[in-house]
User: Which sequence fits this backbone?
């Protein structure tokens, strides 16, 4: 049974579809109300490395000097952390409209795109995932799950949960462990679930934010008709970006709503069933990193913390910057594919700065709930010389550990 | 200037290749085809020349898996015409493939014929050279840039050992492109989708070519002669073992 509404008011934030998708609509008009206060640039964690802050980019675009913005590094340095959007007193959609529009303009103007960025887009168009892996390999992670993972095309009936595994948990070695943990949790709780398997394609939120409008539209078409093929009560995903797109963006395009839950929300609503399974102690100080899509954009702050508190032995400590003020890991909205570009411009990765916030709490474990974050923060622990000081674990891995026992995280 | 670009579709290695029951061909059940990488560069080279000279670019590909995608995407990138060659299946023979391209290029006067210098199923780079021989045209392979000059082109070609050579080539000519001077351009998906709706492919039927006396007897995966040795232990121990092995084999002193 699901109880309570854990979603905050922020989920009501809507994007006018025309601004995102009608090429004849001049998106610059949407920024006419900008009062040039500069809060966006002040809030942006990468503004110091940008040729123009978002405020200046808006000003130049309004004055007909868009070309200057397109030639600058500004458009490639946004990692879609939504901090500017959250701070803007006029409520302008800087993250959802301005940056995708700038990148769309750059892509259509035939500007030379950063190599890794281009490759990720090519891969998504061709294979349905940015990692460039084949559809057949989407099922490989299930071999290590230790429990049956049914594929919906073979189940041929209505299921309670259709689980959108998404690309990184399907293919990335570090994230496959999280998918396996999730399968064991669903199985142990007796949830009737299935996955899409080789048919699954990326939901496309990062491609949307990366400004590849046509690619996102084609993914929306594909996914909409794929989801129409099957019957389910709810969609569950471990990917905050997929959750963001299906909650806020898909409905503006398709005119329909999707019963989508991130796993933190899904499990938190079933704590009564989950808690008795969490029998092994994890005696550790744990700090939780609020990711941008679940936090700032969708207001899911309490559910992940409720899950961590449910694990016996865990003592939860907060970072100085948490919840609405959490610093982004730098991987969102195409950031995963602009890592080299951003590092060259800024001289650091946001995950390097953020790991400092986590270390300052003295926690043993940094808990996360987004597939991008485990590898980004683990890399940052190494690159900043703090390997061994703390470990990074997805909440799924901690729940699974508490359920199964074994060596401490 | 008229430029023809020959596109070859090759097995996409994103899925593991498997051999079919006949033992002489690849199992195509899960296999997809992808445009050969050096052909992408040949197209980019042609589009760069078009940008500078206003050349007319025609792309040609044999009707095969995913070839339409490559042809439409070439149109979206800026090619003027895309030709789908039908009625023929040259199989594995690169000589037959070259003969097919020659046939398709008939009545299509071209100053430059560009194609990738090699493909993963043509590592010895036969197609461009064979085609030039059949057409009686000059041929240069492994090019990294093509510059127009008065009535000819100046081509930079890579040589083994890190040297490069600049060659003047009279037209018409066949060039085997290794790389264009800049990475192949990105074409927005919206443009490909729009092109698929608004443009059509030209179909050209060619007659089957003569078999060339080369037959595949067996297709197989090479078996490793010796098993690999896995080094075990802590990173320090493994590093010590590697260093000892390198010294033992005289690779370092």
Assistant:
């Amino acid at each position: 049974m699901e109880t309570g509404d854990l979603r905050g008011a922020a989920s009501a934030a809507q994007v006018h579809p025309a601004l995102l998708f009608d090429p004849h609509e001049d998106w610059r008009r949407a920024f006419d109300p900008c009062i040039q206060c500069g809060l966006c640039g002040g809030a942006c964690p990468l503004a110091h490395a940008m040729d123009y802050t978002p405020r200046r980019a808006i000003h130049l675009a309004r004055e007909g000097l868009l070309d200057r913005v397109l030639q600058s590094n500004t458009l490639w340095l946004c990692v879609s952390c939504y901090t500017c959007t959250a701070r803007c007193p006029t409520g302008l959609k800087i993250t959802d409209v301005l940056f995708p529009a700038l990148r769309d303009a750059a892509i259509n103007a035939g500007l030379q795109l950063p190599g890794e960025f281009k490759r990720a887009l090519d891969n998504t168009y061709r294979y349905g995932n940015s990692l460039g892996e084949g559809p057949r390999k989407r099922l490989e992670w299930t071999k290590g799950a230790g429990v049956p993972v049914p594929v919906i095309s073979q189940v041929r009936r209505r299921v309670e949960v259709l689980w959108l595994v998404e690309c990184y948990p399907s293919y990335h070695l570090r994230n496959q462990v999280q998918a396996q943990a999730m399968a064991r949790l669903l199985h142990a709780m007796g949830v009737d679930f299935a996955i899409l398997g080789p048919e699954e394609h990326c939901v496309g939120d990062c491609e949307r934010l990366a400004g590849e409008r046509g690619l996102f539209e084609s993914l929306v078409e594909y996914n909409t008709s794929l989801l129409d093929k099957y019957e389910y009560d709810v969609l569950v995903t471990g990917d905050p970006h997929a959750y963001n797109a299906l909650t806020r963006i898909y409905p503006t395009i398709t005119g329909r709503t999707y019963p989508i839950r991130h796993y933190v929300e899904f499990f938190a609503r079933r704590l009564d069933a989950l808690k008795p399974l969490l029998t092994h102690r994890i005696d550790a100080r744990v700090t939780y990193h609020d990711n941008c899509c679940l936090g700032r954009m969708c207001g899911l702050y309490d559910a992940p913390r409720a899950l961590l508190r449910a694990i016996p032995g865990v003592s939860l400590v907060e970072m100085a910057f948490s919840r609405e003020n959490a610093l982004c890991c730098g991987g969102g909205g195409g950031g995963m594919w602009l890592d080299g570009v951003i590092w060259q411009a800024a001289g650091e990765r946001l995950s390097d700065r953020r790991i400092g916030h986590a270390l300052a709490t003295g926690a043993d474990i940094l808990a996360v709930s987004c597939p991008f974050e485990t590898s980004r923060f683990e890399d940052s622990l190494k690159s900043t010389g703090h390997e061994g000081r703390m470990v990074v674990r997805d909440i799924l891995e901690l729940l699974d550990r508490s359920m199964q026992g074994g060596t401490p995280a | 200037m008229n430029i023809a670009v020959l596109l070859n579709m090759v097995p996409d290695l994103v899925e593991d290749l498997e051999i079919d029951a006949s033992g002489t061909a690849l199992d195509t059940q899960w296999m997809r085809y992808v445009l050969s990488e050096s052909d992408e560069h040949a197209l980019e080279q042609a589009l760069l020349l078009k940008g500078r000279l206003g050349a007319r670019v025609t792309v040609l590909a044999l009707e095969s898996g995913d070839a339409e995608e490559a042809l439409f995407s070439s149109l979206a990138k800026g090619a003027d015409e895309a030709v789908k060659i039908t009625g023929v299946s040259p199989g594995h023979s690169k000589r037959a493939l070259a003969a097919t391209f020659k046939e398709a290029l008939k009545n299509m006067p071209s100053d430059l014929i560009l194609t990738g210098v090699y493909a993963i199923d043509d590592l010895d780079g036969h197609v461009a050279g064979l085609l030039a021989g059949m057409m009686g045209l000059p041929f240069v392979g492994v090019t990294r840039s093509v510059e127009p000059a008065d009535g000819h082109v100046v081509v930079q070609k890579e040589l083994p050992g890190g040297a490069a050579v600049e060659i003047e080539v009279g037209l018409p000519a066949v060039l085997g492109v290794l790389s264009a001077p800049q990475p192949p351009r990105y074409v927005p998906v919206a443009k490909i989708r729009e092109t698929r709706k608004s443009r059509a492919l030209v179909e050209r039927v060619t007659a089957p070519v003569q078999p060339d006396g080369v037959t595949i007897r067996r297709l197989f995966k090479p078996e490793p002669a010796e098993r690999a040795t896995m080094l075990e232990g802590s990173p320090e121990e493994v590093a010590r073992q590697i260093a000892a092995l390198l010294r033992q084999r005289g690779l370092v002193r």
Q: What stands out?
A: Residues 1-24 of chain A have pLDDT under 50 and may be disordered. Residues 125 and 215 of chain A are 6 Å apart (CA to CA). DSSP finds 21 helices and eight strands in chain A. The longest helix of chain A spans residues 213-229.
